[in-house]
Amino acid sequence: MSQVHHTTARALMRRLAVEQAECRIPSLTAAIVRDGRTAWFGGRGRVDGAAPTAATQYRIGSITKSMVAVVVMRLRDEGALDLADPLERHLPGTPLGHLTIAQLLSHTSGLTAEPPTAWWERTPGVPAAELIDRLGLRELKHRPGRRLHYSNVGFALLGELVARLRGTTWLKALREEVLDPLGMRDTTARPRAPHATGYAVHPWADVLLTEPEHDADAMGPAGQLWSTPHDLARWAAFLGGQTAGVLSPGTVAEMREPVIVDDGDTWTSGFGLGLQLSRAGGRRLAGHSGSMPGFLATVWSDPAEGVGVLFMANTTSGMSGTLLGDLLDILDEHEPRLPEEWRPVAADPDLLAVTGLWHWGPKPYTLRLLPERGLSLEPVGGAGRASRFVPQDDGTWLGLDGYYAGETLRVADDHLDLNTFIFTREPYDPAAPVPGGASDWHA
């Protein structure tokens, strides 16, 4: 199961072997996904006396949340809910009903991290009705929308929201709408053979403690699922845009947009809608980590490079934290992606005539023609507001990104009208309809 060269595979396996040996992990698997397919898989350690394979199950913990979030986004795309809806509109009877669905998805609701039960990851769960009855305003730890505060409870509520709106369990909805269509048939609520046993490794001796595993019931949407490297590779491809119709690529891209960051101005980690985000080594990654007693897992996707990476391990703690970044670095070093070939495209002569230099007041911009009649407006020198635009049926262009996302661009012979801002061929061209007028330049 390798599409990489032998030397690349050897370097990747060595990095995996170092992680397993030095971090004392009972078993460890990892995979790289490229262009929607598994390009490399590696396994070290032992599961029931044999090396783990791409079909070996591990518990994936909070990666479950990202899958539940997809069902919520499907409901949004169908019109069954709006992300700005308060929870009360769809899940009445909780004192936390003023929290919005978007806040729950992005961990900005201010809800407590853990439920008011016994340590939920190590004990049998309680039904959703009982959990909701236990929740009160005391579980609200921060003003909603103020900051990122990771909340397992929030996804328990989203799971119940899915169950109410679908008229079934969150798990059945997830199975029918996401897992089966993506071919993830080895992603299950409870383990099936072959699966790894969850262990804690003693900090001062090379001995193991078997960790408990239970049905989390109402807390299941926060971290119940088990999966395999094969299935999680398919999930990495999905997050990168290979959606198989489960969601539109545009909706997955929306989930990857940052809603909140975790570390202020440095912006190296944060959350979108149900997805963790990371910026590292020049990459912008989206995915999720997972942790349950006896297990660790993480999956990342880099849509810009068409690559994904994941690991699954049966240990409670002890990973280095650099494994996945190192694997991507090795791939880049040994097999850097070639840029797409440049090819000329047919151009509308009328559009070609409006390309070139324009000015917003005295500031110069360039307007470039993109494929499919798109336009790109960028400041000369790179500093300033840049956006891409796509044509609309009424002859205008709609902003895709940057400051002008969602705004309307109108193109005339002698000026551009971008949401009331007038761009002219010459700085403040007096012949163009510049608001406030324009007089002669002077010393």
UniProtKB/TrEMBL annotation:
GO terms for molecular function: hydrolase activity. Residues 348-425 form the DUF7586 domain. SUPFAM superfamilies: beta-lactamase/transpeptidase-like. Residues 20-318 form the Beta-lactamase-related domain. The keyword Iron does not apply. Keywords: Hydrolase. The keyword Phosphoprotein does not apply. This is Serine hydrolase. It comes from Nonomuraea aridisoli.
